[in-house]
């Protein structure tokens, strides 16, 4: 169902995003896929725990804010991936993009644009101080809801829907929404779950 041929086909139609207001903070992330013995896997990072970071300790896609030197958001995703985990995806196939996401936990207006990349093999990583872990995980269990869970990842009373990965990692929040948007793009019949 989620083999790379199908994903490439579904993402082949270019998207037209609404214009981004000039006062909006812009960021981009890399949704990195690979084939692993017939299974499509996706790469997540765990952000390092840091005071003042609204996504401290969260599972995320590599990426970050657009710098003045970045020619566009795609360049920002490529640069940030190299800086955060030491993975150069500048020559990797960009097989599509997803609609921009908006974080709910940040007061300032912000959009995050996901770009979908395809790479081969089993690259090594050199995480910087912003990254606590790098994790490959198969897409299929998330798509089928096999590892769907409800948890309170920050230890508070509020519980969130998400995907429980190996090693105790929990994908929730904006990244959870991006994963579901990805599944909706690949399969228009996908039933999206609420965030909470």
Short description:
This protein has helices at residues 4-11, 73-85, 139-144, 173-186, and strands at residues 25-36, 39-47, 59-60, 63-65, 93-97, 110-118, 131-138, 148-151, 160-164, 170-171.
Helix content: 10-25%
Ranges where pLDDT stays below 50 over 5 or more residues in a row are none
Based on secondary structure, the structural category is: alpha+beta
State the assembly state of the protein chains.
single chain
Number of helices: 4
> What sort of overall outline do the alpha carbons produce when their principal axes are compared?
globular
> Roughly how many Å is the radius of gyration?
16 Å
Average pLDDT: 92
Explain what this protein looks like in three dimensions.
The model has no long low-confidence stretch (mean pLDDT 92). 21% of the residues lie in helices and 30% in strands. It has helices at 4-11, 73-85, 139-144, 173-186, and strands at residues 25-36, 39-47, 59-60, 63-65, 93-97, 110-118, 131-138, 148-151, 160-164, 170-171. It contains 4 helices and 10 strands. With 196 residues, the chain is α+β, with helices and mostly antiparallel strands. Strands 1, 2, 3, 4, 5, 6 and 7 form a 7-stranded mixed sheet that branches. A 3-stranded antiparallel sheet has the order 8-9-10. The radius of gyration is 16 Å and the shape is globular.
């Amino acid at each position: 169902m989620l083999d790379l041929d199908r994903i490439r086909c579904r993402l082949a139609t270019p998207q037209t995003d609404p214009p981004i207001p000039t006062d909006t903070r812009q960021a981009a992330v890399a949704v990195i896929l690979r084939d692993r013995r017939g299974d499509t896997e996706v790469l997540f990072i765990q952000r390092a725990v840091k005071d003042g970071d609204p996504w401290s300790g969260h599972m995320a896609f590599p990426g970050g804010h657009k710098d003045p030197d970045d020619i566009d958001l795609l360049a920002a995703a490529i640069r940030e991936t190299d800086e955060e985990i030491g993975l150069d995806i500048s020559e990797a196939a960009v097989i599509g993009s997803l609609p921009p996401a908006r974080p709910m936990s940040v007061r300032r207006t912000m959009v995050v644009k996901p770009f979908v990349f395809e790479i081969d093999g089993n690259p090594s990583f050199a995480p910087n101080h912003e990254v606590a872990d790098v994790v490959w995980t198969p897409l299929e269990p998330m798509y089928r809801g096999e590892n769907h869970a409800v948890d309170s990842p920050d230890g508070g009373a509020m519980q969130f829907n998400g995907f429980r990965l190996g090693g105790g990692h929990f994908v929730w929040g904006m990244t959870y929404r991006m994963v579901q948007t990805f599944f909706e793009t690949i399969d228009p019949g996908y039933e999206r779950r609420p965030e909470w």
